[in-house]
Amino acid sequence: MNREMAFGLLLIVIAAVFFGTTGTAATYLHSLYGVDPLTVGVWRVFFGAPFLFVASLLTTRETGLRIYRSHSIGFLIFGIAVAGYQLSFFQAVIRTQIATATLLTICVAPLLVAFLARVFLKERLTSRILAALALALPGTVLILGLHGAEAILTPSYLFGNLLALAAALSYATTIVTGKGLTGSLPPIQVMAMSFGTGALLLLPFAGIPQHLPLAGWLILLYLGLFPTAISYALLGTGLKKATATSSSIAVLVEPLVATLLAVGFVGERLTMAGWVGAVLLLASLVVLTVPARRISRSEEKLYK
Questions:
Q1: CA gyration radius, the chain
Q2: Which spans in the chain are helix H?
Q3: What does each C-alpha distance from 218 to 167, 215, 282 come to in angstroms?
């Protein structure tokens, strides 16, 4: 792996660190002020989109915004995926177990990215990518907890589980579409146009939190700035340098960060299985980023 791609993955890992703070912030909003998860997701996009637009205007002052008709379909697909993720995931956590919804969404998304990137972007699945997936997915399951898998086959949770899979597809679509668009457009512009589209699509679902104090609005503002605007700007820049599939694996750092924050600030405990999962997840990043001294032809064999 060349240095440019490794730097792209580093940016995505930093984005994932910010992503990982979302759950803790949303937990505080719900426990302290009674703000439901869907409202948090919608306002996160509402606050994030303007930040991205301002950043896009500032970074394209010399060249100007380059928007062509051929890009409009990509922005629309990306925007639908942004809105679809907020609606499907936050409904999934209500209709199935939270751990199950998170497990399905996070673990299925990289597999969908690998498939969609192969079909639409012609990305190649090397043994390095497959090895990273083989380490990262079990590691993520162990971090999130095996108890989340128990509800996957429970009939009463079927609709919620399907919504979680829809969230995984939405997220995978943002990765693959973002990779395609950043090939010809500045990454921040891609995110600004796409999140602007997503915000417009979410307008019918917007509810104003009742009696929310200034501290609550500041938390929502934080969610819009850091885990949304800054994180997706970093993600877009990383996607320009790294493949879609490797990027989706790097984002799996998010549940590790979220778990460590829950341990430090919410008082949760990480089990031994969770620590093993953390080691596996970090090992997958090593496989992705550390260049091998000698890579045999068999290791570079393409899985077609």
A1: 19
A2: 3-19, 22-33, 37-59, 69-95, 98-120, 127-144, 158-182, 187-202, 214-224, 231-241, 244-250, 253-261, 272-289
A3: 27, 5, 32
Distances (CA, A) of 292 to 4, 7, 213, 297: 16, 16, 53, 13
The amino acid sitting at 39 is T
Give yes or no for residue 244 having a pLDDT over 80.
Answer: yes
From CA 145, how far away is CA 271, in angstroms rounded? 9
139 Cβ neighbours under 8 A, 6+ residues apart:
252, 276, 277, 278, 279, 280, 281, 283, 284
Q: What is the mean pLDDT of the chain?
A: 90
DSSP state of 264: I
Q: How far is CA 55 from the centre of its chain?
A: 20
* pLDDT bucket at 302, cuts 50 / 70 / 90: very low
Residue tagged 């609005």 (tokens):
217
pLDDT value of position 296: 45
Q: For the chain, what is the largest distance between any 2 Cα atoms, rounded to a whole number of angstroms?
A: 63
Which stretch of 22-36, 179-193, 208-222 has the lowest confidence by average pLDDT? 22-36
